[in-house]
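Title: Prediction job returns without error message
Component: structure pipeline
Severity: low
Priority: P3
Assignee: unassigned

Description:
Job completed but the reporter wants confirmation the result is attached to the right record. Sequence as submitted:
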Amino acid sequence: MADTVRHRLKPLPGDPGREERPENRLRSPAPPVPTLVAMVDGSPDIRTALRAALRERMVARDRPAVGVLRTAIAAIENAEAQPLDAVTQTELHLGAATSTDVARREVPDTEARRLVQAEIDDLVAASQHYGSLGAADASAAASEQADVLRSVLGTSA
C-alpha cells in the first residue's frame, strides 16, 4: 500500500514536473508603486511623509520603526477628533445624547509637525530616563525611534 501512495506522488509520464509548469514559475516582482506626496510650502505634508515612511518600514519589517510611526500618525488623528461638549459617557451609552457623528476637525500641517516633535521630545526624555536607570538597551531603542521620527520630520538631533 505504501508503494502505491509513493507511486502516485511521482509525476506521470509525459507530465512536466512541478517546477516546469507555467503557473509555478517565479513571477517578476511588481513594479514599485509611486508615492504621491502632498507638498506644503515646498516640503512634504507630514501625514503623507509618515504614511510613506510607514509603508517602507513595513516592507523592511522594521517593527520598532513601524510602531513609532503608527504612534505619530495616531497622535495626529487623535488631534483631529472633535471634543464632546458636556456629554457624559452615561448619556452616550443610554442614547440620551444627540448624534455624535461629527466631521473631524482639520489639523494644519504646522500643528501636526508640532505633535510629531512632541513625540520626539517624549522619546528623547524616555531615552535619557532609561539611560539614568542603566537600561542601555531601552535607552538605545527610544533614541533610535526618535531618530526615525526626526528623519521623517526633516530635523536633526
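Comment from assignee: result matches the submitted record. Strands lie at 39-40, 43-44.
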